[in-house]
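for the writeup, i need someone to sanity check this before i put it in the appendix. the sequnce is what the collaborator sent (i think, or maybe the updated version? ugh). structure was predicted straight from it, no edits. if anything looks off just tell me and ill rerun, i have time this weekend
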Amino acid sequence: MEYRVEDLAEAAGISVELLRSYQSRGLLPPPRHEGRVALYGARHLDRLRLIRELKDRGYSLKMVAASLSEERPPDELIESREELLTHRDVAERTGVHPAVLRSLEGSGVLRPRRFDGELRYTDADVRAVRMLLTLLGYGLPLEEFLDVAKVQIEANDRVAAAAVNLFLHNVREPLLAGELGQRAEAERLVAALRLMLHGATAMVGYHFQRAVLNAVQEELERTGTKAERAALRRELRRRGLEAVAPL
C-alpha cells in the first residue's frame, strides 16, 4: 500500500508539517516519486510510529535520530554514552529541591544505579523526574500520587523478580550448559537480556495504556460531555489504539 503525504500523515496521526519536519531532519527514508507525486509505503508508516513511540517514552529528537541512524535501541545508545550524575546534578537539571529528590528515592519512584560501588544517576533519572513534574503540573497531588506509585512499584518489583528467575533458569542455565566459550556465552546472555528488557517494557506499557484508556472511556461514556468523548476519540485515533466500544 502506498500513501500520498497527506494520507501518510493521517495514518500516523500527525500533521503534514510535522511529517515534513521529520523528513527534513533525515528521520524518514526518501519517498518514491511518480512524476511530481511523492509516494510513501509501509516502512514510512512504521518509522513514524516508531518515532512517536520513542518520543512518548521521553527521548529527544536528537536521540531518536541517533538511534535510527545507528540502528540501535535508544536505551543501548544512552547506556553507551550516558553521563554519570550526582544527586546535586539531578537537582540542578530538574529544578527540584534535593530534599524532594530524597523523598522520591525513599518512596522508590527514583532509583539510582550502582557504578563502581557508588550510587549514581543518569539522564534517565532526569527524564523520570521531569515526567513526574509534568504529571504534577496537571494538578495531581504529590502525596496521593506517591501512594498510587507505591502500588505500581511493588507490582513491578514482583514481576521483575519473577522475570529474572525465568531468565536465569531458561536462558542463562542452558547457555552455561552449552559448549560456548565464556566470551560468546556472556555476549549471548547480554543480548538475550536486552531483548527481554525491551519486550517486557513494551508489554507493561501496552497493558497500562490500554487499562487507563479503557477506564477513562468507560467513565466518559457514563458521565462525559460530547466534547470530552470527541476529544478522547481523537486521542485514540492518534495513538492507533482501538476503543473498547463506539464513542
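The radius of gyration is 22 Å. Residues 27 and 65 are 6 Å apart (CA to CA).
thx in advance!!
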